[in-house]
Amino acid sequence: MSGLMPARAHYFDGDAPVGQPVQPEISGDTLELKLEDGSTIRWPLSEIRQISDSAAKTNPMLRWVNDPLARLVLKDAKFLRDMPNLRRRSPPKGRGRLVAWALAAVAAVALQIGLLIPLLADNLAVLIPPEGERVLGEATLGHIRDALDETGLNPLEVCEVSKGKAALERLVTNLSGKRDFRQDVTVSVLDHEMVNAFALPGGFVVIFRGLIDAADGPDEVAAVLAHEIGHVISRDPTRHALRSAGSIGVLGLLFGDFAGGAAVLLLAERLISAQYSQGAETGADTFAYGVLSQAGINPGALGDMFESMRDKHGDSAGVTSHFLSHPTLSERITASRAVIDPDATYEPSMSDEDWAALQNICG
Description:
By secondary structure, the protein is an alpha+beta fold. It contains 11 helices and 11 strands.
């Protein structure tokens, strides 16, 4: 089953308040949304749901179950029959008023999530005091450690073997150079096989042991670390936290409850697999290239790490989803190759001794 759909549509990514015109196309069991910039978003047909929205009675609104923010508004509903799980059970008869209130609530939530919260998040992120971000980051890291502990008895261990920790601190110092960070960057290694790294509000960067084990050398770890520091400097984790936590997070941060309950529990899950916008990912990549080049490290190492992930997990699946936004891994690998200076002499980011120590930081 394939063919270009005649219907026009608008795609709302949850970041920008204005929808992007897209041309839907069904290819096999996937709905492909082709954006104007040439990139493609793919939604499995079986995972697409239709949203009831009183503000769009004639235009079906769809969502993908794995993306809580994105919405697709169609101008033509003729091909909805190709999506097997769209329909929901009709509400019981005699409850029209309840249904009306429910639809109004859904519309209000959609407006809040799709428009108000992103706008508030982008504006409030620059107003949150550093100490507030720090407390939020610490609390979120604690919940992540609790959530990933398989025994349920103790938080996931932070790797702190002294030689490895010292080697990591030297690497961070080398990458930081003389840059004026808004707040200190704190890097922690968690003893887990997950191949991942992410940034938290308040200057926290987390690397999993699995990523260090998967790296072909220290430069790849340095490149990923520089990328995540780029998110920290751009305040991306704080913006994502505000959007993910919704009104609970916004009000909590406004009134000083920086580590408040339900919001932090939600953030722990969202931030560990955060998928930032195209601009945020490109910005973090560009920041990493500059940091690596300034430190005398080959900036193409970021592409090397992405290439290893793509070879093991594909271009848009598995652990790579954390690093994947609208620019695919292939595009980002190509971009990293383009910034390599053929006349430059690059040095390893770590000595052999420090790299061995970092590889054994968890003991």
